[in-house]
Please model this.
Amino acid sequence: MAGRDLRALFSTNDRTVAAAEAFTNRQAQWDLVAAALAEHLRHVADPGFDVEDLERPRNNVIVFHGVGGIGKTTLSRKLEAALASADQRPSQWGEPAWSMERILPVRIDLSRSAGTSFEDLVLTIRAALTELGQPLPAFDIALRRYWEQQHPGESLEEYLSSRGLAARFGKAMPQQMQSALSDVAQALLLPGTVGTAVGALTGSLVKALRERRQTVRALAGCTRLEALLEAEPDLDALSFYPHLLAWELAQLPANKKSIPVVLLDTFEDVGDRTHRDLERLIQRVVWLMPNVFFVVTGRSRLQWADPGLQGQLDYTGPTAWPGLVSPASGIPAARAARPAAGHGQQVLVGDFSPEDCDDHLARRLTHDGQPLIGAEIRQVITERSHGLPLYLDLSVLRFLEIRRTRRPAPADFDHDFGALIARTLSDLTPDERHVLRSISLLDAFDLPLATAAAGLPHEAPAMRLIERPFIRENPFGLWPYHLHGLIRSTIRSADDATDDRWSERDWEQAAGRALTALGAQWAAHTGRDRMLLVGCLRQSLPLARDFRLDLGWLADAAWAYVSDSVWEPIAPPAGPHGTSGLETAADALAELLAALARRQHEHRSVTASRLTTITNSELLPADLHEMAVYYLAKAQRDLGDSASSRAGMQLVADGGGRLAPAARRGLAHLARLAGDFPTAYDTARTLGWAGRQHRIEGDILWPHGDMDRAAAAYTAARDQAEQHGVAGERAISQAQRALVLAFTDPDTADDELHLAEQLLTGLDLRATSLTVRIASLVRDAGALPGLEAARALRAEIRDTGVTAAEAVLELALAFHHAIQGEEDKVRVVISRLRELARTGDYTYYADIAHFMAGLPLPSPSPATWLDGPNAVRAHWQQLVQDRRSRLGTVEQSVR
Model:
């Protein structure tokens, strides 16, 4: 299937390089054509099929549409070759369900460069039919009459030669036409040379048809021949003559019948949505030849099934073209779908898979039978191409260009080609081009967003643009449309040599419009739409950062983002210029939100480092600066740096801003970690909902072993969060409730853990997820089959740097060993807890482990308990005893 790649061949002097026109497998498209053509053959072979029935729906066309450079023309050529000869069909395409001898393919290039007129289209189809070796008198008489009227003095034979049709199909067509006219003249008993008397011949034939003479009984079967011969022989009449060809094909004897397959390529050059004159004529041909199968390739899908085109085209609507109603969304490379009759006959030609891209590049240029382009370079080109064949072809030429002076390197192909822009923009209106550049700033969009980003007063250009194949649709997305990845990156970054290219100021203004439009969409939505908020932030942060725009509504959106404690990934991609460091408020805000989201997946030391850089930059406005300070203080607390954490929390609390209640909560946490429970409890009781009072009370009560009151506090915190619609806080409170109940009632804890897992679904709360897993260990304490899960969990917690989670895990293990009476193992746990408490925090965890096992404290505890250490010891010893009793009861019931 590989021919010579002339462009590559003439790009190098190295004659050892073999430049092949590599055709990467399009098996799925072949399967669709084969299935549709097989259905067409069954349809025309049906005894009830009537070629003169002009009211029956048509399914004799399949459309392949896609972006410029996707390989539609190559596909059209390969389909023609495969239909013409089994030898030209790739073996992987498989055998068709019909005989190749019955198929007569003819490909017609409709591109402007080919200069194909409607007359050429009709003549090409007729010339191709000369291979049947049969006269087609009805059509030939009408065509000869048209030609003499419209081209007086111009020889049809010379015209065919000048257009290359004689060389392509041979010179039999004029001879067949002359023979047909002679036969009709003889049947009508007309004297003389008919070639100079077509008018007389036509008149006599019309009269004979009216009189139903036996001499013309064969032609009399064509009911509309008389009307066509009487009509003025102009271009409009010519467009109806293909009906005569279809009728003639239907009259052929069985041993001569063949099914023409007409491949119409570059259909986008036929016209546009305003000028449909040529399209109307071509559509008429397709409709009037129901026994001919048409394969259309172009950039856009056919709109013939749209009832709104009535009046612009002759045959429109879903009843007329049922197979063109809905375009297929694409063809998975590994799946060969067969379209149902009358449906799905508009197919988007998809991008190459990475494997196909590599195969294409490996076979395009070879040296001694081996790929000239190395694997590393092929990988870079493949990744950059997004599967677009045109990009692969341009990269091959770039490879040869660089190779003239030096050895190409992978870095040479991290490159954008301006030619892609020209190909994409070539058939767009100025307004459509303007919208296209505007939406290249967006990851996804809808019609209002695209229109607002373009600054246009009406949506019509955007509506037209979304029908283009380089606009992909995801009906389930927040915004349903997105631009083809390669085209988007090229428009954004390549040198644009088009006449209406944008200046830097144009891009900046478009980015400002897009940012404003996204903010308006977020602000206009009533209720707490988390998905919309995150989507707007993900699209807007890169715009504000890359174009140095003011934060505006992004500040309020950032506060809305952190308020739910959900932490979806928000990090924008690297800027187009690859700049490092923080230079603007938008840089700092993007880094702040990214760091807050990533802290669920990074060691807290990494989070602290990133937040320190942000606070030191002093680029953020005061309220957002406090946000960075507060979360830095939280990270420092998790890392055991209580002094720094306390200073940050106090700064935010004293500022009285939005996070002041949360900072006071942080101070309560720090007092608790230091063992100063009275101060922590007194502070907690002043926090209210804003400071998460009930949850902090629970955090203070459970180390005392007062699990019932702690569970009640967590229940109140969860219900409050439910009322306020804060999903993250609800999940945190439920996880803590499950933990405390796991100490007292394992059966109830099962249900509570299940609810906690449900509430965590869709949230990115790593520390809370760890709490749930620790609670599962506590639930099973005393009956754990082994400690492998606990060891794995300890390693995972250490990767996060969350000291509090590790301390709780060790406490769960101490509980397990105390229940089993394993004092030595409890002492090992105590040793690990003392190591965690080396900074002065969490010291009371070791005390609790002593209480559980009934061990004396080696020295007075620095912790200040609410009711004194003896009450706390009694609570924890009772929890251990209750579990021992429960396990003993279970063992007796098993016996």
Remarks:
- Residues 869-894 form the longest helix (26 residues).
- Residues 135-251 form one domain.
- DSSP finds 41 helices and eleven strands in the chain.
- The longest strand covers residues 103-109.
